[in-house]
Amino acid sequence: MTGVFNISKLPVSPAILAAAILCFPPAVHSAGAAPEGLRPVNPEAAGFSACSLDPIDAAVAASMEAGEIPGAVVLVARHGRIAYFKAFGHRSLRPAREPMTVDTIFDMSSLTKVMATTPSIMLLVESGSLRLADKVWRYLPKFSGGNKESVTVSQLLTHYSGLRPDFDLSRQWFGYSDALEELWKARADSEPGKEFRYSDINFIALGEIVRTLSGKTLDLFAREHIFDPLGMADTLFRPPETMKGRIAPTEPRANTLQYLKGKLPQNSWDRMLRGEVHDPTAWRMGGVAGHAGLFSSARDLAVYAQMLLNKGTYKGVRLLSPQSVRAMTAPQSPRGSPDIRGYGWDLESGYSAPRGDIFEGGFGHSGFTGTSLWIHPPTDSFVLLLCNRVHPNGGKDINHLRAVIANIVAAAIINHPDE
Q: Distance from CA of residue 311 to its chain's centroid?
């Protein structure tokens, strides 16, 4: 994925590609003074009842005591104000113990799908370079065979493509070009548009669409058009060595490659992962993929969440149109489907634990490593939980913790005096 992008190998004309690139001017700042960004206040000033967020402390402590997580960072905001922002426990237990800090950077895992890939796709839609109703093969001609011809870009975003959850992990391959060969060989096992099946392959394909249409790899495109305009300095793929001291480690690579069943040299992957993507497919792709590979902090994720609550703007910078935000976060699943997804985002499915039991509506996403976010426009609020549950040696289910924290937040909300 490194080096100069060869425009002559694209399955679109240079004129179309040039037009697509020209459609991405620098982010536009609104006229007048820039509005204030997220700022910390006491819970009452954000519309929460006094002391009502305090039970979050006990919930996280119980999860640590049960050995589910080594530590965590929790941030709760409403009306553009941070009402709760705390770090708990440790970000590292091995090889050395380190305390968790609020500025810890995490492997975001599948939040990559909604923080990098989905908004990149929507920017291409806004520029006229891409249409979600189109068949994928229009942009990726090799995306054919294996019942894939009728798969649309929209079905990739909503996980209704019929594709399998992941590639055959036992196959021996390495590198981005090899991953594309696996993508071309992938099959849709069910009829596209009929069945919800959460699939990393969907977003691997979407990441390649971004690369094909923009001429830039997903990491570069997202940095230039999403992260830099929003000032998300902690958010990036393949973090440099200088950032690793703040990154929460996950687990040894050997643990993530157990599916290879001894085909790697013994004891060669025992080093604790820190700043290297945990997901084995994204790792084999070089650390940049549409489904995983992004690293970020609680503060940066909060900025991104607030941008969505603001219908596409943050501190005077418009990233997405209100219509795009509405499309991403409205039901886009086939009519009558029990699993309801927006473009990229989860609305109502078996993956909705971060919503809890009290919030009605909203949208969110979670990540395998222990990350999650739920945004609730009706109350102008969001809650995020970042942890490295897979550290130091595997991990336990934290859906209970995700839901409990969301329940505490939902129950704490009261009408603000200014409303």
A: 18
| Nearby residues of 13 by Cβ (< 8 Å), 6 or more positions away | none
- The mean per-residue pLDDT over the stretch 230-253 comes to 97
Write phi, then psi, for 340 (nearest 5 degrees): -105, 120
CA distance 159 to 117: 14
Q: What is the CA radius of gyration of the chain?
A: 21
Residue 8 lies in a domain: no
Cis peptide before 392 (omega within 30 of 0): yes
**176-185 and 200-214 are packed helices; what angle lies between their axes, rounded to 10 degrees?**
120
CA angle 97, 102, 106 (to 5 degrees): 70
Q: Which positions ≥6 away from 372 have C-beta within 8 Å?
A: 111, 353, 354, 364, 365, 366, 384, 385, 386, 402
Task: Determine whether 338 is exposed, middle or buried from the number of CB atoms within 10 Å of its CB (0-12, 13-18, 19+).
Answer: exposed
- Segment holding 77, helix H or strand E: strand 71-78
- Name the token pair of 419: 């409303």
6: phi then psi, degrees, rounded to nearest 5:
-90, 105
**pLDDT value of residue 260:** 60
Number of structural domains in the chain = 1
Strands 294-297, 105-107: parallel, antiparallel or unpaired by DSSP? antiparallel
Per-residue pLDDT tens for 204-216? 999 999 999 999 9
| pLDDT tens digits, one per residue of 142-184 | 999 999 999 999 999 999 999 999 998 788 889 999 999 999 9
Which distant-in-sequence residues (6+ apart) come within 8 Å of 114 by Cβ? 344, 345, 365
- Longest Cα separation, the chain: 64
Alpha helices by DSSP H, 186-297 = 200-214, 218-222, 228-230, 253-256, 280-284
Q: What CATH number is attached to the domain comprising 87?
A: 3.40.710.10
* Partners of 384 in beta bridges: 75, 373
In a domain, 345, yes or no: yes
For 400, the token pair is 């209970």
Q: Is 289 inside any structural domain? A: yes
Of 282 and 258, more confident = 282
Residue 22 in this model has a pLDDT that exceeds 80: no
| Mean pLDDT, range 332-344, rounded to an integer | 96
Domain that holds residue 315: 38-412
Q: How far apart are CA 402 and CA 419, in angstroms?
A: 28
Q: Is 78 domain-assigned?
A: yes
Residue 416's pLDDT is 45
Q: Are strands 363-367 and 71-78 parallel, antiparallel or unpaired?
A: unpaired
Instruction: Average the pLDDT over 57-70 and give the result.
Output: 98
